[in-house]
Amino acid sequence: QICNQHNAEAPNLEQAFHRMAQTEPNLDHDVSWFLLPSYWAKTIVALISFLCFANSYDGDFVFDDSEAIINNKDLRAETPLGDLWHHDFWGSKLSSNTSHKSYRPLTVLTFRINYLFAGGFYPVGFHVINIILHCTISVLMVDVFSILLGGLQFSNKGRRLNLAPKTSLLAALLFAVHPVHTECVAGIVGRADLLCALFFLLSFLGYCKAFRESKEGHNFSIFWVLVSVILGAIAMLCKEQGITVLGLNAVFDALVINKLNILELIQKLLYKDKSLENAGLLRKGLLFRITLLMSGGASILYIRWRIMGTGPPAFTEVDNPASFADSLFVRVINYNYYYSLNAWLLLCPWWLCFDWSMGCIPLIKSISDWRIIALAALWFCLIGLICQALCSEDSHKRRILTLGLGFLIIPFLPASNLFFRVGFVIAERVIYLPSIGYCILFTYGFSLLSKQAKKKKILAVAVLGVLLINVTRCALRSSQWRSEEQLFRSALSVCPLNAKVHYNVGKNLADKGNQSAAIKYYREAVRLNPKYVHAMNNLGNILKERNELQEAEELLSLAVQIQPDFAAAWMNLGIVQNSLRRFEEAEQSYWTAIKHRKKYPDCYYNLGRLYADLNRHIDALNAWRNATVLKPEHSLAWNNMIILLDNTGNLAQAEAVGREALELIPNDHSLMFSLANVLGKSQKYKESEALFLKAIKANPNAASYHGNLAVLYHRWGNLDLAKKHYEVSLKLDPTAPGTKENYSLLRRKLEQLQKKGG
């Protein structure tokens, strides 16, 4: 029945299709599932994948989006395009020791294009592209699964046959609606994983095209093998995992094209059997193609290593505590436990969290820890699957299980800690590609159950139920990724021991002005991780603003003691010490901050304020000048220079600095106001008036702007206008210092003029 319906689409393929059906078991035969034409299957997959994540389209920039997009100078037009090839994903120089070495220039390029087309940091365009990418990948998965589950067969006219239309549709739907993909789709930074997956799949499909004209693999297209290698390189330029496609292509070639029996090959190698030719290793060009793949992969990795510059990135213990354990036993046990948790997220993706570090998963330190059961269960299942993949007499079963395990394990290897330390414990985004293997194994298991089950429709309804639950979970999880508040709070129930979760909730509350609630979460973050210097720094800042200076100093002092090169904490400690009038200690703290971060404009600004308080005017001006050199748009530093020069009677110099500042920041109303004051004192009334009016237009509710413009009119002799702006100023701020007195003087003068006139 399936053959007839399928070939109704392409009658000329009937003979080839039936020949294939006779030589190999058909997974679809016993499966009670939808049989649809290819274009309908792909349309349904696209629509359902869109439905899952559509509600994330108008979400904010959240979590890592701030660093990778908003604070990444590589997105801005003024940054040369060539810099993208020398910077990491976050915009830092790859040669820097602080770089994370995540080299993804093509992903950053797409962010830059998004930014340019949107005309700024508007998240809608970024989210829409992510959703489109996931829909595209899900559609491609129909073709990929048809090859992995049904085999690679072409008609006489070179058209690829879909020998598993039912199961390939089911597997593609499972992939499209898997909730673990939410981070990649709803989080804009997940673009790296989506682009990597797109070119990963194109590389695999390109490799399959190499055999379109072949008979039993004897003839193949070198062109398409090379295209596959190039697409693999492009995938790696989107994210590091992309390189693993070359390994999977080799596995696919051996198992599907050459129908290699791995167990038989191992036995022949062990017994030094000289008939390896018959085992399929050398025939059909396998060795040559694997050599091409390996050479391409090695070249790509070598170039990547050279670009990376200073070696692997340096992560801290809080990022990946297991990798810092002294005991090999503890490291191995915990790595395997992490693998089991990743497997559980694929099987039951209900408990999802934006971050799994910082105590979320306490280390297993003893064999008596009950969590050992999880990794034992993982290896029991893996060993069982591996044995079936190697030893089964059914070649069809061996092929599908090996491909499923290959797609599950090989793309995960870069995140496994086996080759190098990674900067996370668990990251849902890194199992986007390995979930392909899970979908293969799930679908194959479903087909086996269908073969045994008497009531196949009940089984099909159960799978439909799983799909509907996953769609619902995707929609719910996508809504949580729409804002930082929802995202961070959703993690409290999943990872209550994660200090970073409490820190992020606290930071979000502090940004909204709710300092009391923020303090509670910052304190909990420090309690959970007593060495969490960023939480100490932020808590110290809030306490400083609330004038709780003693505790603020204790926290900041502890932070710099734990991490002596923490420049921001040194600067904040200096601010607190300045407030406590311990000026020498404050100056020393500022210079220590600058020592650890050479280009630190905010620290130079605060150092200038300290010098101004000490009446060291030259030093203050130099510090503020350094701040503006490092950050030309540093409005506060420019303003303080103008005000200090104004207050010390250096009006000409103050005017020159003010004009320089306005050339760099032409729309800054505070600079207009400061320069207008200087020009008024220099009796340049007309120019001063124009700047005051421009500043008031930009910020009409600033009482001081109206008050000082009134003073200008008062001096200038425009008494009616002076009266008008004094009254506006007093209406905005009835307690404005000096304005009441000046207004009284003006009124007396007006009364005197009226008497004289009378």
From TrEMBL:
It is found in: Endoplasmic reticulum; Membrane. Its EC number is 2.4.1.109. Pathway: Protein modification; protein glycosylation. Residues 311-383 form the DUF1736 domain. It comes from the Eukaryota. Pfam families: TMTC_DUF1736 (PF08409), TPR_16 (PF13432), TPR_19 (PF14559). It is a multi-pass membrane protein. TPR repeats lie at residues 499-532, 533-566, 601-634, 703-736. One of its GO terms (cellular component) is endoplasmic reticulum. Its main location: endoplasmic reticulum. Keywords: Endoplasmic reticulum, Membrane, Repeat, TPR repeat, Transferase, Transmembrane, Transmembrane helix. The chain crosses the membrane at residues 131-151, 188-208, 220-237, 286-305, 372-391, 403-424, 430-449. GO terms for molecular function: dolichyl-phosphate-mannose-protein mannosyltransferase activity. SUPFAM superfamilies: TPR-like. One of its GO terms (biological process) is endoplasmic reticulum unfolded protein response. Belongs to the TMTC family. This is dolichyl-phosphate-mannose--protein mannosyltransferase. The gene is Tmtc4.
